[in-house]
Specification:
This protein is an alpha+beta fold. It has a single domain, classed as Electron Transport, Fmn-binding Protein, Chain A (Pnp Oxidase, Chain A, Roll). The chain contains 3 helices and 8 strands. Helices cover 21% and strands 38% of the residues. The radius of gyration is 15 Å and the shape is globular. This is Pyridoxamine 5'-phosphate oxidase family protein. It comes from Effusibacillus consociatus.
């Protein structure tokens, strides 16, 4: 059976990507040209065609995107594994209202593929625990997601 490729997120994926999800961002390393993977969680689906995430402006992710904006995001859930590809653009200004130095990166989605191997269904999404002060984590989460929603 041919792989189904669509050009935007389903409503289920938009709903799923509303924060606190572990996803894997794939970029091309600006120095070596090799694939680069980073785990991120401050990410929101703004619409079926746009994903935004927050990242430290000193991150290698930013240098990679400035050199080559083509990216993909691997999402585990709902029920499957998805590869979301598009072109990313990093802001130069810090996110307003966020105590941490963070910038917004926006991905214009080109394609979405269900990449789960044949005959399988994902039963649970990955879980993680923040290992720093829970009250501080909640404060940062609130600040970052509020700023990402503003655009």
């Amino acid at each position: 059976m041919a792989e189904k490729v669509v050009t935007e997120l389903s409503q289920d994926l938009v709903n799923f990507l509303q924060g606190e999800k572990l996803v894997f961002l794939h970029t091309t390393d600006f120095e070596t040209g090799a694939p680069n993977v980073a785990a991120i969680s401050w990410l929101l689906a703004i619409s079926p065609k746009v994903i935004r995430f927050a990242v430290d402006p000193r991150s290698r992710i930013v240098s990679n995107i400035k050199k080559d904006g083509r990216v993909s995001v691997a999402v585990l859930g709902p029920d499957s594994c998805y590869s979301i590809s598009g072109v990313a653009k990093a802001d130069t200004e810090n996110l307003e209202g966020v105590a941490l130095k963070m910038i917004k990166v926006e991905i214009a989605i080109d394609e979405v593929r269900d990449v789960m191997f044949y005959g399988a269904k994902l039963l649970a999404e990955p879980k993680y625990e923040k290992t720093y002060d829970p009250k501080l984590a909640e404060k940062y989460d609130t600040e970052v997601y509020t700023a990402l929603k503003k655009g």
